[in-house]
């Protein structure tokens, strides 16, 4: 779809808030242009990104929801830590936790980079892998300055593409 077609489609729903996500949006040609166009149309816009690609050129009005991949994901080497420099109070940094090792790793990263002072930090249990209650209890026990987040889209629609 062209940027104009996307804007028409988005406009047909009359939203106030638009999230650009799916796969890795920043890998798509025109993503930055789309984000700018959505902002220009007056939408509140967020970008969900894997954290593996540079976010420095993202419009500062866009809320960045950036993942840091945990060790169990097998993708920790793809984390682009310089992206942390482009996060501010409106942005979110998300860790999807699969097990105790991931939890301890994420906890150390939050402390090392003082992330809770920079942005909102989210800990999310990997669906079907990490028990959500156990993760919530660990967060409470350790008094972490993070927000517990369930992957609501997976509860509502499972792994259905486009949902």
Give a summary of the structure in a few sentences.
The chain is an alpha/beta fold and 163 residues long.
Q: If you had to describe this structure to a student in words, what would you say it looks like?
A:
It comes from Methylocaldum szegediense. InterPro entries: Aldolase_TIM (IPR013785), rSAM_sf (IPR058240). This is 7-carboxy-7-deazaguanine synthase. A six-stranded parallel beta sheet has the order 1-2-3-4-5-6. By secondary structure, the protein is of the alpha/beta class. It is globular, with a radius of gyration of 16 Å. The protein has helices spanning 3-11, 31-40, 100-112, 115-118, 132-142, 152-157; strands spanning 17-20, 44-49, 63-67, 92-97, 120-125, 147-148. Strand 5, helix 5 (132-142) and strand 6 form a beta-alpha-beta unit.
Q: Which shape, going by the Cα principal axes? A: globular
Radius of gyration based on Cα positions: 16 Å
Low-confidence stretches: none
The number of helical elements comes to: 6
The overall average pLDDT, rounded, is: 95
What's the helix-strand series? HEHEEEHHEHEH
Q: What share of residues is helical?
A: 25-40%
How much of the polypeptide forms β-strand, as a percent range? 15-25%
Secondary structure tally: strands: 6
SSE-based structural type: alpha/beta
Q: Gap between N and C termini, in Å?
A: 18 Å
Main beta-sheet annotation: 6 strands, parallel
Strand order of the largest sheet: 1-2-3-4-5-6
């Amino acid at each position: 779809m062209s940027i104009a077609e996307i804007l028409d489609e988005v406009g047909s729903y009359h939203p106030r808030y638009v999230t650009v996500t799916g796969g890795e949006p920043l890998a798509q040609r025109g993503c930055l242009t789309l984000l700018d166009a959505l902002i220009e149309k007056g939408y509140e816009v967020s970008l969900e990104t894997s954290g593996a690609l540079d976010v420095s050129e993202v419009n500062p009005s866009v809320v960045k929801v950036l993942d840091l991949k945990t060790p169990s994901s097998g993708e920790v080497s793809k984390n682009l830590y310089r992206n942390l420099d482009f996060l501010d109070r409106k942005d979110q940094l998300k860790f999807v936790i699969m097990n105790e090792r991931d939890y301890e790793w994420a906890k150390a990263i939050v402390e090392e980079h003082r992330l809770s002072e920079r942005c909102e930090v989210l800990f999310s249990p990997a669906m079907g892998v990490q028990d959500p209650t156990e993760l919530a209890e660990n967060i409470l026990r350790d008094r972490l300055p993070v927000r517990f987040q369930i992957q609501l889209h997976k509860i509502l629609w499972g792994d259905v593409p486009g949902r």
